[in-house]
Amino acid sequence: MRNLFFFIIVIPAAEIGLLLVSGKIIGVWLTIMLIILTGVLGAYLAKKEGLQTLQTVQNQLQNGQIPGDAVLDGICVLIGGTLLLTPGFITDITGFLMLFPPTRRYFKRSILKMLKNRMHRGNIKIIK
Questions:
Q1: Which of 41, 50, 53, 65 stands the most exposed, by the fewest C-beta atoms within 10 Å?
Q2: pTM of the model
Q3: Which positions ≥6 away from 33 have C-beta within 8 Å?
Q4: What is the mean pLDDT of residues 116-122?
Q5: Cα-based distances in Å from 88 to 32, 48, 103
Q6: For residues 45 and 50, what is the distance between their CA atoms, to the nearest angstrom?
């Protein structure tokens, strides 16, 4: 419930505040253009990274390997692309960090830790 409150109330409120401040400092039209630019750039980067991740998964499957790390990359690319399409500076920065491979590894560790915790608690069950 705490996370839900954070993502539904706090983040959008902070985004609105930053957009208002940005509109006052650099102007409304420049702020709107910046939002559109990050959306377009984000869509391009998400597509590029997503296709590269898909290629990696296919190569690993063809070689008989389990694509665990590539699946985590795919999750990060999906979330990062979604964040970049959401208007706002906080979501854009987070989205870009999730799309760039050097910074993506920190998010992958967090996702993996969260999945392991849920499996240990019994919230996720793996059926063979």
A1: 65
A2: 0.81
A3: none
A4: 82
A5: 10, 22, 20
A6: 8
